[in-house]
């Protein structure tokens, strides 16, 4: 247990660190057993305010023989601090390549399931100042734009989990000091020192960069400033889309071309990126491709192009972007009563009765008119990439966001949801059903 003197020595105040959690009922703490996450757990336990119920989640990835003992150590130390702990295990075959990425996805998947079962609203992780510095450098090397160079956010959505990182401004040396003063021996994962991983190489380069003036605190401050610029650009993009863009019930985006041509170049890039994300359900693109596409449209060219599972029609007065089925088609599934799912990253479907969902393949303008009583305003290909919901008898209940029967509700994920904000999570318990591409 930390004493007030320990925290004063390190310049940390739990009351300030965890203030954003006011009003939460249950939260999760991701604790691996390393010094950073043990410090997070110690600081949370030292918080003397009225705090949410906390559950510690630790994951044995099954990649190292020491992992099981490390998970047991976390559970033991959590118990000493009066915190509940759930030890989770990643079982089954492990990939031979891309293990770090696969382990991260598995870890968040396991924790997400446990949080849903426990009613936990938000997950705290121990990302710190050096993590931020490494991320900024990596993204700079990869050619990221302003959003990417803003680095790690204090709040974000990761694999459907709302994540809070209270220690982003704290150095790992400070956290290690806290753990040592508490008398704990943290676990060490040798992969963190493996130079085959890019992040490790940037970590090893940091001391030399610090000698040139690029210390982690400077990089962290740069990330804060870029996040402010990014937030301003996001608001401007929201305003442009509200005034000059539409998302129709079939998931087709339309943008007024004249307004697009007179917009600021940064906003043009962001509008196209946002539209592609909303139409494809994908949230990551090569920035250079988006920039080239936005520049081509702004130059007045009329063309048809495809990108990230979408088709872009640059017409005389309108930019039309719709989903394509792609090489492997769009997802299909059965719906059980009471089930919610996110279809193709674009539509949230809630079923009161049993049914099925899949793409509206084969439907044309005449069938659309007969079912809805309206006229199809967009391309038939856009209609055929929209979800078609049928009841157990095969009767059509919804086309895209147009409900023509009973027993199902369909909502579109708005264009403002692509950025991964905590406030834009799908409904609790919703299954993410994505394209097999």
Automatic annotation (TrEMBL):
Catalysed transformations (reactions): cytidine(34) in tRNA(Ile2) + L-lysine + ATP = lysidine(34) in tRNA(Ile2) + AMP + diphosphate + H(+)
MF terms in GO: tRNA(Ile)-lysidine synthase activity
Sequence ranges assigned to domain tRNA(Ile)-lysidine/2-thiocytidine synthase N-terminal in this UniProt record: 27-204
Protein location: Cytoplasm
Free-text comment about domains: The N-terminal region contains the highly conserved SGGXDS motif, predicted to be a P-loop motif involved in ATP binding.
Function: Ligates lysine onto the cytidine present at position 34 of the AUA codon-specific tRNA(Ile) that contains the anticodon CAU, in an ATP-dependent manner. Cytidine is converted to lysidine, thus changing the amino acid specificity of the tRNA from methionine to isoleucine.
Name of the protein this chain belongs to: tRNA(Ile)-lysidine synthase
Species assigned in the record: Pelagibacterium nitratireducens
Protein encoded by which gene: tilS
């Amino acid at each position: 247990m930390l004493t007030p003197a320990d925290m004063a020595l390190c310049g940390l105040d739990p009351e300030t660190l965890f203030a954003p959690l006011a009003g939460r009922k249950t939260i999760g703490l991701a604790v691996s057993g390393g010094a950073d996450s043990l410090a997070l757990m110690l600081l949370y336990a030292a918080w003397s305010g009225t705090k949410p119920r906390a559950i510690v989640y630790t994951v044995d990835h099954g990649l190292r023989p020491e992992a099981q003992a490390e998970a047991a150590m976390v559970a033991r130390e959590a118990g000493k601090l009066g915190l509940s702990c759930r030890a989770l295990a990643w079982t089954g075959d492990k990939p031979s390549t891309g293990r770090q990425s696969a382990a991260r996805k598995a870890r968040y998947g396991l924790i997400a399931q446990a949080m849903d079962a426990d009613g936990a609203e938000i997950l705290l992780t121990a990302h710190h100042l050096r993590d931020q510095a490494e991320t900024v450098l990596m993204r700079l090397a990869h050619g990221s734009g302003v959003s990417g160079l803003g680095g790690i956010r204090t709040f974000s959505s990761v694999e459907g989990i709302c994540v809070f990182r209270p220690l982003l401004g704290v150095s790992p040396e400070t956290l290690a000091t806290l753990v040592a003063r508490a008398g704990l021996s943290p676990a060490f994962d040798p992969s963190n020192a493996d130079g085959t991983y890019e992040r490790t190489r940037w970590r090893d380069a940091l001391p030399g960069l610090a000698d040139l003036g690029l210390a982690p605190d400077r990089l962290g401050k740069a990330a804060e400033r870029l996040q402010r610029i990014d937030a301003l650009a996001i608001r401007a993009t929201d305003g442009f889309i509200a005034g000059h863009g539409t998302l129709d019930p079939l998931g087709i985006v339309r943008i007024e071309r004249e307004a697009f041509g007179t917009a600021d170049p940064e906003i043009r890039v962001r509008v196209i990126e946002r539209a592609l994300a909303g139409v494809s359900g994908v949230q990551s693109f090569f920035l250079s491709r988006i920039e080239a596409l936005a520049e081509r449209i702004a130059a007045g060219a009329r063309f048809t192009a495809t990108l990230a599972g979408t088709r872009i029609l640059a017409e005389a007065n309108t930019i039309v972007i719709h989903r394509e089925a792609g090489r492997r088609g769009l997802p299909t599934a059965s719906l059980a009563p009471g089930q919610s799912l996110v279809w193709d990253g674009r539509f949230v479907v809630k079923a009161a009765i049993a049914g099925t969902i899949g793409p509206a393949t084969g439907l044309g303008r005449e069938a659309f008119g007969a079912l809805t009583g309206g006229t199809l305003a967009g391309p038939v290909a856009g209609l055929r990439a929209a979800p078609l919901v049928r009841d157990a008898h095969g009767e059509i209940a919804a086309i895209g966001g147009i409900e023509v029967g009973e027993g199902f509700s369909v909502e579109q994920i708005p264009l403002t949801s692509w950025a991964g904000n905590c406030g834009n999570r799908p409904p609790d318990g919703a299954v993410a059903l994505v394209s097999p591409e």
